[in-house]
Design goal:
By secondary structure, the protein is mostly helical. About 60% of the residues lie in helices and about 0% in strands. A two-stranded antiparallel sheet has the order 1-2. Helix 5 packs parallel to helix 7. The longest helix is centred in the N-terminal third of the chain and has 25 residues.
Length: about 300
Amino acid sequence: MSALQSILDKTKNLPSISSTVGRLYELLASDTAGAAAIARAIEPDAAVTANLLRIANSAAFGVSRNVSSVRQSVTLLGPGRLVDAVVSSAFRTVLPRRLPGYGIDAAAFWKHSIAVALLAERLGKQLRVADIERVFSAGLLHDIGKLAMAPELEARAEAVRAALEQGQQSFAEIEHAVIGAGHDEVGAALAHRWSLPEEIVLAARWHHHPRPPGEEGHHAVVDLVHIADGLAHLLGYGADIGELARDIDASCTTRLGLCNKTLERVASEAIDPIAELSELFASSDAKPRQRPHRGRGN
């Protein structure tokens, strides 16, 4: 049995992302699904509903009115924002308190995920890329493989520590050397198992090593997530074991036509929304809050 298959077999004991996400994607793919049908698909999931209302009332999601019901959130957020909010809600419910193999807790992992999601989305809007409605979710879920890899790395902590001390490999390379698989492969397999869209599967699989045009796995969404991942680490969102920096592949910025000035501006403008969504789940009993309208920007 391969290392990847062994890890995937163990993930059957992990909480999975809510099936509400899959139902929502199916409904939104239908031209006949109205707000009432979409709301009915979400409302039975109490955990997702509670978190959806928190997120919908966040200034980072740009709704100027207080959102008090699922039906209202469907109407006010619109399809794209609704998917972002529901995926965020569902994802937050499956995070463990700590990811011991990576030396981070849920708050740090969540902050990094939110940072990558918002940065990727803002870069995508700047470039007016296709499939922009998938970019936020792809960024948010790019590291889901770490949920399964964390206990495997913790069980081999001495080998991981020894490899880090040698300083000759990236952490992704250490995963493969010690475990025989990486969180990128595991993440793609989990995304596929959860019936998530192809762009999300590809972003999980290739966010460290984006494929060039013409190769299997190439997608503009992957390039955006890769760049956003690097930016998030440069901004201090996402320190993990070893405080490992992420290099941004210059070929990604070149083919997207992104210059350093644009990256710096987008990163600067994203700081407040990142903080807003990161703080939203600082405590499990947080209530939806009314905020002055600031919007998510372009």
